[in-house]
Amino acid sequence: MPVATRLYLPIFPLPDLAFFPRTFLPLHVFEARYRAMITDCLGRDKRLAVVGLKPGYEPLYEAKPAVNTVAGAGRIVRWERLSSGRYNILLQGEHRIRIERELPSDTLYRMVEATALSEIGADSPRVEALGGRVRAQCLRILEAVGRSSAETRQALESVRSPGELCDQVASAVIPAASVRQALLEELNVARRLERLVSALDALLKQLTREH
What we know:
Layout: E1 6-14, E2 24-29, H1 32-43, E3 47-52, E4 70-81, E5 87-103, E6 110-117, H2 127-144, H3 150-158, H4 162-173, H5 177-185, H6 189-210
Parallel strand pairs: 1-3
Antiparallel strand pairs: 1-6, 2-5, 3-4, 4-5, 5-6
Helix pairs in contact: 2-4, 2-6, 4-6
């Protein structure tokens, strides 16, 4: 059995956000504590975790509100420091992680010990068919909102990994934060695709009614 990879990372808690592996996330960083975090990350290995805040976080936002246990870890691949001290950054997702514990820290931002999580179930015989359904549903949704094109079709077809397809579609297409978080937490690729298919079905029905 492989040894689980332990990671020690700063966390960037954000409401209604799930950060998936193999996706890109642009962020504008303006709070002082997170500007300090980005400065420190750039001086180290450029890695941090983006984690969703649990409901009811508002009264504790300036302190240490509760966060989801499963989050996304990634690396800063592009950054711009503005004259105001703020940052524009681009994160590339690398891992799902499980936060094991919060670490004592003398920084303005929070640090955690986490475990990198691995996918399972990618070799299930259902995966290929489910991936085909996801691609077809995405094209129908894009057509419904007037964004279908040969480029989008080609982009969907070019993603061969079923886990990557699921993560990219969940990140870009699914509007409900709770559904995105559930998809982030699902390590079994076949089950994740099944849940995504159901979510896309519901979204397509909603769009069909609206149009």
